[in-house]
Structures are given as structure tokens and as C-alpha cells.
Amino acid sequence: MRKPVVQLEDFTLLREGIPLFNPLSLTIDAGQTISVLGENGVGKTTLLNQLAGLRRPGIQYRGRCSVLASATNKKAVESAWMGVMLIRQMPTSYKRLTVLDQVLLSTMKPYSLWASVSISVRKSRMDTRQRAMNALDEMGLANEAATLVEHLSLGQRRCLALASVRVRLESGHLQLLMLDEPMSGLDESRRLIFNQVLRDVAARGCATMVAEHLGISQSPLGETAITLQAYSGEAL
Amino acid sequence: MNYFADLALRLALLLNLALALNIPFRWGGRLILSQGIFVAMGAYVVAISIVRWDLHPALAVLLAGLIAVPSGWLLARIAAPLSAATFALLTFLLALAGMEILENWDSLTGGRSGIGGLHNLFLPGLNASPKMSVALVLLLLGLLFFLLARFLFQTQFGRAVRASRDDATGAELDGISVIRVERDVFILFAVHSALAGALWAFALPRVIPEYFDFAVLSLPIVLACILGGGEQPRHALLGALLVLALDEGAQRLPTTPEVRADVPLLVVGIAYVVVTLINGDSGVLSTANRFKARLRRYM
Fold it and tell me: What is the C-alpha separation between A69 and A5, in angstroms, rounded?
């Protein structure tokens, strides 16, 4: 039997000893998409950061938590190599890199000096570049490949992040995708593309967690939705 | 002839050092103000190992490069928890401390009188003076590192260095170990600087501390990287050429002998202020492009 991708048991995050939300138990299996809902400040972003290995000073956790069958004490770099990907509310923008270069970083080729020099990296360069260009084309950013990321709008940066998802998926380096309020700043056509990417991610057996702040007329993106309730008890 | 040998030597040294600094500074966003100390390390290792231990010159140069590896690693460890500004300040203090060591550790460095007696370098089959020979070998070293930098710029490593500079948290989320990337960058910088220093030592009458002074060596290289503007290795070369040209021009200005030594740095400094006021840290190439665009609009 396959182990769940994310498993939380009586899990909560604490800021200076005070829980952010009521203890949560949750299992996310491969191919499942879950929406995490909640009011501003309830801890959605902090939860995703914690699962991706981003530690923030003053944040601790209680309860049990495992991501890809390993305890949640991995660093962000280790989590990324295990197949965890987090797209933050303000997506990663390497301002002085070109759009193509930023997507190429998602191919998860080795980043060390020695590996870069090795012939094996050079051999697969063209193939990698083609995959990155295909992903950009799909997101409507092929014409911007040589543009510096700093010149993109927020919506375009979100699409760039989706192109990175696509490349990570193709490279086989994606097991858990986490998105923090991904729909803000996207127009209708790009929302459709976004939904298509989410379906592809699920079809490839990757788990997805989407943190959302819903408007009145919207429905959650995930097939299952959980709501984080602000903690109302005493400090632990 | 001697003038051209001197000029070639200065050009070769400047090109090498600007290329070495370009990677940590322009790619990685880490300003290092103590490059002179790394150059001195190479020069002194060569001087000590040849004059005192009678080591073969080729092995001495190799040793200088090897000794630079742990120093680059140490620099990366120091840089890891520090912001770019704090790190730059720390390297300035390192430059001052390094000069104190060079000037006062007599038993190792020979103090202010330094170490002399290095063999002259002659290239087999070439009828070049020792100075010109060193300049040619330095230019060859510069060419190798230029090609390496050009290659690395378009690899995952080159992208990872620049990504770490722009968004360290995002880089970690993309699986880039910022600490490891910086380690490689600093080792590359230290080895290149030390090798350049090791070769330069063969052209010096004596290896003395004042050659490696912050204002004499490190500062012009920083200015070269800023004036060059962009991240590409060719920008560093352009900056180095510009600094040399300004320096040469400044030496021909009619001044009194007392202030002549300070004039070149003053001229380079003024050029830096002018370019920075016009175009931030985007350098002279970008400034020239802006002027060109403006001219086109008027014509």
C-alpha cells in the first residue's frame, strides 16, 4: 500500500507558544487535490511554508506531521529534491534572470560548479531547453523567453511559476505541489490554463494543496476542502 | 618597450582580477573588498616557497592555487549568515587586518621590506622580457577563466548563483543550496585571484605589502566591475579596460609630483560617481546605450 503524501495528526502551528489554528488531522494521498481555506492570518501560508521546509523564527509545531513519509524537519532544499514544490503568494521572481532561465532552474539539474562543468549536463541541454520552451508556450510566455523576469506583471509571474510546475512534472521531480492563493491576479483565460495544469498534476499522481481565501461566488479548487479555524483555547 | 611591458602586465592583472571579482560581486551580489589579500596570498606563497624552500616555480604556483581553496571556503562560511552590506564591511576589515599581518609578521612575510630574489620568468621559444612573459601567461590565465565564466554563465550553476542573489528563499524552494553555491563561488574567486597574484609575483622586484593595499589594488577592481555594468564576463573586461585607460590618462595630467600618485584613483572615482549618478549600478555600457537611444530620438 502506498504511503500518504502528507499526514497530519492533531497538528497545529504555534507562534510564541500560542496555537494559530485548532489541531488538524488530515491525510493527502497521491493524485488528491485539497483546498485549505481560512480567514486572513489563520495560518494557511505558515502551514504551507512549514510543509515545504521553510522555517520562520518563533514558529513551532505540535502534533504529528510527515511529508512523503519523512518527518517535517527537512530543510526547503531537501524537500525540493524529494519532490515538494511551493508556489508562494508572491511567486518566486529571479528579477535579473530571463524568463527562460528561471524555468530552466526548475529542471532540477545539479546546481554545483563541478556538475555544471560535467559533460552529462551539456549533453541534455538542448532537450531541457526545448521542454522549458514548450512549457512557456503553453502558458503564453514563449515570446517573453528572453525578457528579464523583473519586467513581468504579477499575473505573468504566476504563469511563469506554472511553467516551472510543468517542467518539474515532466522531469519527474514533483510529488507534492502547494500553491498559496494562486488565482489572484489571473485573468479568465489564465485561470482555465491553471485549472488544466492542476488536472494534469493530479492525473500524474501528484498531490496538491491549495491555500485559498474564497470570495462569496467562488468554489474551492480542490476536490476536498478543509477550513482552518482560528484557535480559541488557552495557550499551550 | 619597458613601458609597453608594464602596460601589458597591468592590463593582464586587471583583467584577471576583474573577472575573478565579477562572479561573486555581479552574479552573486557579494561585494568583496579584500581581493588584494587573496592576490597577496598567491604572491607570498610563491615567494616563500621558491626563495625559502627552493620549490619549482610551477609547483609554487600550483601550491598558491591550492592554498586559496580553504580560504575561499572560509570566506563562504563567514558570508553565510551575513547580509550583503555586512559582509562587504567585514571584507574591508579583513583587508585592513591582512595588511597589518603582511607588514608586521616579519618572520613569515619579511615585513615592509617583503621578500625578493624570485627567478625571472622566461617563456621558452619567445624572445620576450620577463615582464612581458608574465603578462602573456597572465593573459592566458585570464582567457581560460573568461571562457570558463562564459560557459558557467549559461549553466545551472550560473543561473543558481544569480537566482540566490535575487531571491534566496525562492532559490532554496527550487532546491538550490545557497550555502553550497556561495562556497563554490568564493573558492573560484579565491583560486583565480591567488593564481593571478602568484604569477604577478614573478614580475615584481620584491613582493612587498604596498602592492596589495586596498586603495591600490582592491578598490580599482571593484570600480572596474561597477563601471563594466552587466553580469557577463565581457562587462568585467570592459570595466577593467576603462579603469586602465582612465588611469593612464590621469597620469598624464599636469600635476605636482606630490599629488600625482593619487590622481588616477581620483579620476576613476569621479568616473564612477558620474556613471552611477546617471545610471545607478548598470555601468558604462548601459549608460552608453541610453545616450545612443536618446541621440536616435533627436536625429
Answer: 7
